[in-house]
From TrEMBL:
Membrane topology recorded in Swiss-Prot or TrEMBL: Multi-pass membrane protein
Statement: the UniProt record of this protein carries the keyword Hydrolase: no
Main location: membrane
Source organism of this protein record: Planobispora longispora
Gene Ontology molecular function terms on file: transmembrane transporter activity
Domain Major facilitator superfamily (MFS) profile: 14-387
Subcellular location: Cell membrane
Transmembrane portions of the chain: 43-64, 76-95, 101-122, 143-161, 167-187, 208-227, 247-266, 273-290, 296-314, 335-356, 362-383
UniProt keyword list: Membrane, Transmembrane, Transmembrane helix
Protein's name according to its UniProt entry: MFS transporter
GO cellular component: plasma membrane
Amino acid sequence: MAIEPYRRLLALPGVRTLLLVGLIARIPSTAVGLTLTLHVNESLGLGWFEAGAVGTATTVGMAVGSPLAGRLVDRYGLRPVLLATGVAQLAFWTSAWALPYPVLVVASVVAGLLALPVFSVIRQCLAAMVPVEQRRTGFSLDSMLVELSYMAGPAFAAAGTVALGSTWTMCLVAAGLAGSAAALILLDPPTRSDEEKEEAAEKVPRGEWLTPGLVTLLGTASAATFILTATELSLVATMDRAGDTAWIGLAIGVWCLYSLLGGFVYGGLPRGFSPLVLIGGMGLLTVPVGLVGGGWWWLVVALLPAGVLCAPGLSSTVEAVSRWVPAGARGEAMGLHGTALLIGGGVAAPIAGAIIDSAGPGWAFAAAGLVGVVMVLVALPFWRRSAVAVKEPQPVAV
């Protein structure tokens, strides 16, 4: 039965607490982008371009800082990194409301560089606490919890800005990020299992684990977030042009529900699939979505096949990274995985927007899916070689 693997997972010591803390700790991190956007647009009275520039600045900082934070966790442990990044976030978010726009842009880069690495840390610790044979279930459940965090965080940012104003909302984000750092410091979950501690003592040169296979795997993860971001923009644009703006929130909510359902089923399967199969399938099934007509509800139905592959596709890339990389470098590798996800989403927004403006949202759906398919084809030969080279059993090869 599908529920049994989750029961066994949650019975493992510390896993239930880690996942619950991870769910709550990620909510303020997912509120960051929209909070900054609304502050620039409403409190500073600037345009959407300026608001987007601040978001881009934060993303650039996070993309650079994510693997650096992971490397520091590998070298010095979890608590020093959480303390430093927690203090940095508290300092930025309690003062950002008073900064003039040019200073805010620069400070956003620094804040992104010193972002709380809650996403990669939870995954790194989960890999240490869960046996290899249960990691697919663990990462599937974690992926579903990430979906819930992304549903709650932006909603909190929007509601807080309307009810309290951007200044108080930014202060609440500061409290949330500092509280998340404090909770993880107190919890202090292991970043390596007892068996992996001896392995981690032996330093492995980066060139031995950062292989072409791993690079293309990260590229495939990036393609997945490209598909998701471009699909979201295309969905919003399609509904806006049809005059169905009032139903956008419901449509996106149903789409997220597809992903949750897919992640739940995937985590309970007796055997997993290669990320190339899952993300390639997600891409192929996204290509024809733009051809659907007859109302927004049919568009949402058309998103079902690709939607159920979202959480499984992303969780399978995390599982592959945890298997391919030695324990002593897992933090840096998870940081690189986070960077790949950020790059995919960051690149997708302007490209999909340009296609929507010039050719229409239907073509943006097609382009999003094709990007995923092309990246899978690029990764395929490297994946086969990497699957032979690693010591631990790998996800099913294509």
